[in-house]
Amino acid sequence: MRDYLPEAAAFDDTRTPPTDRLAGLLGGVREEPVQVLHDCMDGFGEGWRHLPAEGWGRKTRSPRPERPGNLQRMIDIRRATPDDAEEIVRLRRLMFAAMSGRDEPGPWEKEAVRVARRQLAQQDSPLPAFVVDGDGPGLPTHLAACAVGRIEERLPAPVSPHGLFGFIFNVCTDERYRGRGYARATTAALLEEFARRGVTRVDLHATPEAEAMYRSMGFAEHSIPLSLDASTLDAAARPPRD
């Protein structure tokens, strides 16, 4: 993953136990990470605005009053396995289509399935992911939603003694299941996993549609994100290889 941001801690995971912190993200009601409550917010996780998790572990919220027509429901969330690779890539394709307005199938899908299957099979995978299974009579096995992240190991620093940083890049809900809060719930579970494994700052790129949800979870602007496509560099400008 490209390292285009300065190293800095953005939340304090020493003040609030992880399960309490997850409850705060979901509205203040404590539940186990794999069975969480939600309110009806959804969105896509990869897009254009850079939003790190600025202080998401520092405080919890009081329970929200129940709103008419918006009853909180239980969501069964589970950790993704290698067998989910094809469905995660299917949702990834839907995410790109929603972002760009055009569907772009291609060889990248087969390669993405291969990479996802390999990395999800690793112990303490650098590709943590949480999913919600789809339902419906007569439908083949499929995923309703997913949230996928990446744990990157950099050199430790005063604000990051373990040198671990997180990135959320694949949050998507099948259109048949939108409006049920699956994006919020799976993202919250992913943040819980980051905290458990010692990650400090968590970054993401938010679409305009999902920005409000991420801000409500504690994400905010941090620094100035810059990126470069190294494949576009002129060969003469590239540093020599050893």
Written account of the structure:
- This protein has helices at residues 18-25, 85-100, 107-120, 182-196, 208-216, and strands at 35-37, 49-50, 74-76, 78-79, 129-133, 143-153, 164-173, 202-206.
- The chain has 242 residues and is an alpha+beta fold.
- The protein has one domain (18-58, 72-219): 3-Layer(aba) Sandwich (Aminopeptidase), CATH 3.40.630.30.
- It has a six-stranded mixed sheet with strand order 2-8-7-6-5-4, with helices on both faces.
- α1 (18-25) runs antiparallel to α4 (182-196) and α2 packs across α3 (107-120).
Please name the defining characteristics of this protein.
242 residues; alpha+beta; Aminopeptidase; 6-stranded mixed sheet; 5 helices; globular; disordered N terminus
Briefly summarize what is shown:
The chain has 242 residues and is an alpha+beta fold. The chain contains five helices and eight strands; from the N terminus they run αββββααβββαβα. 36% of the residues are buried.
**Helix/strand/pairing category:** alpha+beta
* Relative strand content: 15-25%
CATH class assignment: Alpha Beta
CATH architecture: 3-Layer(aba) Sandwich
User: Distance between the terminal alpha carbons, to the nearest Å?
Assistant: 23 Å
Q: Taking all residues together, what is the mean pLDDT?
A: 76
Helix content: 25-40%
Largest sheet: 6 strands, mixed
The helix count comes to 5
SSE topology string: HEEEEHHEEEHEH
Q: What is the total tally of β strands?
A: 8
What sort of overall outline do the alpha carbons produce when their principal axes are compared?
globular
Radius of gyration: 18 Å
**CATH topology (level 3) name:** Aminopeptidase
CATH H level, superfamily name: Gcn5-related N-acetyltransferase (GNAT)
Structural domain tally: 1
